[in-house]
Amino acid sequence: MQLETQKRYYTPEEYLEIEEEAEFRSEYRDGEIIPMTGGTTNHNKIAGNFYAYLKFALRGKNYDVYISDVRLWIPRYRQYTYPDVMVIEGQPVYTGTNTTTVMNPLLIAEVLSKSTKNYDQGDKFLYYRSIPEFKEYVLIDQYQYHVMQYVKTAEGQWLFNELEGESAILSLQTVDVNIQLSDLYEKVNFAEGDE
Fold first, then answer.
1. Residue 69: which of 54, 87, 81 has the closest Cα?
2. What's the pLDDT tens digit per position in 91-106?
3. Contacts of 14 (CB under 8 A, 6+ apart)
4. Cα separation, 84 vs 67, whole angstroms
5. Dihedral sign for Cα atoms in the order 96, 80, 53, 159
6. What's 87's DSSP letter?
7. What is the mean pLDDT of the chain?
8. How confident is the model at residue 81 (pLDDT cuts 50, 70, 90)?
9. Does residue 38 have a pLDDT over 50?
10. If we measure between CA atoms, which residue out of 102, 98, 164 comes closest to residue 131?
11. What is the pLDDT averaged over residues 34-55?
């Protein structure tokens, strides 16, 4: 005899209360709480390199750069998530009464892992596209010099660009920043890329 397990659904408010007390981060996906997997050292290096490069290049300009501990709320799809890197133009738009959750990124970057790459390229990208301010999505492979870039045109179409090799240059379209992949992947050891 097989027992059916009842899936528990949470309200966004319940999730935020649980997340406030939690020892590890989780994402919220339309009623479900999904624990986040731990990142590899390569994942951390790549996200940190991208963040540091953007932070320095955009210093003194009307942009803020955030790394993975700032939460994003996507109201249309009832999603709370923690993008690896976000850029917001002007002031952040917060949801709730504190400054931990934003709603208006211009650019989002995700470092792909084996366990999240399909979600990051599929449903998560769909959810992100519902954000009016969102215009550029950068997906960074942590196992090889490979970056996928999606840029929203003025007509609302998404253009795709793929970069490979350490000498390739990622030219961001929403902010005036160019990053050579050798800089983005600085100190990454591809031999230890499994998770």
1. 81
2. 999 998 888 899 999 9
3. none
4. 6
5. negative
6. E
7. 92
8. very high
9. yes
10. 102
11. 90
Encoded tokens for 186 = 């600085």
Mode of pairing for the β-strands spanning 101-102 and 71-74: parallel
The DSSP call for residue 21 is H
Gap between the Cα atoms of 17 and 26, Å rounded: 12
Residue 34 tokens, joined: 């999904």
The answer to whether the beta carbons of residues 46 and 184 sit under 8 Å apart is yes
Q: What is the distance between the alpha carbons of residues 162 and 160, in angstroms, rounded to a whole number?
A: 7
What's the pTM value of the predicted model, to 2 decimals?
Answer: 0.90
* Alpha carbon distance 45, 189 (integer Å): 10
Residue with tokens 């290096």: 45
Amino acid at 188: V
Give one DSSP letter per residue of 157-188, joined into a string.
PEEEEEEESTT-EEE-SSSS-EEEHHHHTTT-
Residue 146 has pLDDT above 80, yes or no: yes
Alpha-carbon distances, residue 184 vs 47, 54, 67, 179, 192 (angstroms): 8, 11, 15, 7, 17
CB 108 within 8 A of CB 50: no
Phi, psi of 31 (to 5 degrees): 105, -20
3-class DSSP state of 53: helix
The distance of Cα 195 from the centroid of its chain, to the nearest Å, equals: 18
For residues 27 and 34, the answer to whether their CB atoms sit within 8 Å is yes
